[in-house]
Amino acid sequence: MASIKPSAHLADVRYEIRGALTRRSRELEAAGLPIIKLNIGNPGRYGFDTPAHLREAIARHLHDSEAYGHEQGLEEAREAIAAQQRHRGAHGVEVERVFIGNGVSELIDLSLRALLQPGDEVLLPSPDYPLWSAATILNDGKPRYYRCLAENGHLPDPDEIEALITPRTRALVLINPNNPTGAVYPRELLERIVAVAARHRLLLLSDEIYDEILYDGVPFQPLAAVAGDLPCVSFGGLSKVHRACGYRVGWMSLSGDPSRTTDYRDALQLLAALRLCANVTAQWAVRPALQSAPTIHALTTAGGRLHEARREVLDGVAASEFLDIVSPSGALYAFPRVRSDRLADFDDNAFALRLLEEESVLVVPGSSFNVPHSRHLRLTLLPPPEQIREVFVRIERVLVGMAAAQKPRAAIA
């Protein structure tokens, strides 16, 4: 019998964060090799606990969680989200313009499905979080990438963004603080980007899931406050700041002039209703999460575990003969680069596989984030600092070996 053929859409979809390297890692673990994993931003797998008051809120409401909820989410949770957004300066955010989903991942898909016609274009950062590219493609859209180069601090160039706009461009996506680079966008840059969106009547989509994970006093500027009456969808959730990935609670809030987004809001509600509702049980944690004192700052300030893990990354790069890096200002990742003057021929996928096979370290190649010809690696900051220190010893060993293998070829040439 003929084999079942998958959708042609999937030919251009990638998610190497949980891809072939991860599968190979599982095989090595099954053979008894301990693997140091720096591939995924999953705090609970690295010993980070969800704050106790969020667990307690869920426990108190277990009996209230046994029926389907409102398709947009629990009203008390949406009220807390709307209040947070208004406090941050967002315009026009009310309860009926907030949607709760099974993680931000589901809401990214819904936001694009409600928007795109076949062939419509979405402006995405390169590097991007690959789910944005996947959701665009799977909803019949076309990704167009604006560069966020290390030479520019991994910040985008608004003029380059504007040059990519065509009559089919519908939306402009920002990821701030950024995954995978750790860049945090200053207000002046966001103002220029908003001006571009306003001139071309684009919908702004701002992925802000890492909004409170910041280092060295760098401020976070929510995009909705800068956008004003311009339509903007802002995404947040419990998974990162509140270390509750398994709860699968994300949200999106629609800000700006309501008269310009009525039809779009109604389309979002229809799609939300078609999947009935998000996980009810974990939504009871939203209000206490947003109305209590933040718990993440103890981890990101000097002496905190994330701060010290980041310091080990920066020290490891500084001590390396081969690496450089733009210091991450936010989020849970670092994006070091292999220098071309130290290792001319470099394949990030081949390196990542060799690092896994020879040194039992799992990282994500930069090309997995839609970066052409990448010399980057993404590392999560979640492992203990002393483990990250050891990782850089192992990375250097592999790079030294690769450099030694290239020298004879260079001499012959």
TrEMBL record:
What this protein needs as a cofactor is: pyridoxal 5'-phosphate
Matching CDD domains: AAT_like
Where does this protein have coiled-coil stretches?
none
Domain Aminotransferase class I/classII large residue range list? 35-395
The membrane-spanning stretches of this chain are: none
Q: Name one GO molecular function term.
A: transaminase activity
Cite the EC number.
Answer: 2.6.1.2
Q: Which UniProt keywords apply?
A: Aminotransferase, Pyridoxal phosphate, Transferase
Is Transferase given among the entry's keywords? yes
Which SUPFAM superfamilies does the record associate with it? PLP-dependent transferases
InterPro entries (UniProt xref) = Ala_Aminotransferase, Aminotransferase_I/II_large, PyrdxlP-dep_Trfase, PyrdxlP-dep_Trfase_major, PyrdxlP-dep_Trfase_small
**PANTHER family xrefs:** GLUTAMATE-PYRUVATE AMINOTRANSFERASE ALAA (PTHR43488)
Q: Which family does it belong to?
A: Belongs to the class-I pyridoxal-phosphate-dependent aminotransferase family.
- The name this protein goes by in its record: alanine transaminase
